[in-house]
Structure formats: structure tokens, C-alpha cells
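Hello Y.,

Per our agreement to keep a running log of every chain we model this quarter, I'm adding this entry. I've kept the format consistent with earlier entries: sequence first, then predicted structure.
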Amino acid sequence: MFCERFGLPVHVTRHAAERKTERGISLDQLLELLEHGTVRYKDDIRMWVAKAFTGRDDNLVCAAVIIEDRLVVKTVMHHFQWEP
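Predicted structure for the entry above:
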């Protein structure tokens, strides 16, 4: 998988893949999230990307991501809320 937005390949960790499956988030939704979600950076390399998906009642869906030589998706969450 490749993310055009960041110009990097995407690596989904085992943990993130398990959470994605548990939470009913498809690979297409994960890619849509990375390409078009709202980004908030924790620092230069760590960020959260969140997006509401029509038809899901557990919005926002969020991925915790690290930028290395690829985008590393560390976990995938639902029922996410931005902290003020």
C-alpha cells in the first residue's frame, strides 16, 4: 500500500492490523483515512489522522502513525475524540 498524500509506502503493524479487524475498518477505509483525514502532529514524526465515515456510528476513526522511511500505522482506533 502506498500513500500519495505523504509520498510514502505504508506499513501496518500487527497490532494495528488486529485492531483494524476488531473494529471493522477495511483496508480501503484505512487508506482513505490516511489520504484525506485530519492530521494533528505530536512532534516531527508522530501524528494522529482522523476521519468520520458515513454509515459508521463510532466516529471518528483514527490512526496513530509514525513517519519513518514509510508511514508506520501503530494502531487504529474508533470512538475517537480530539483533545481540546
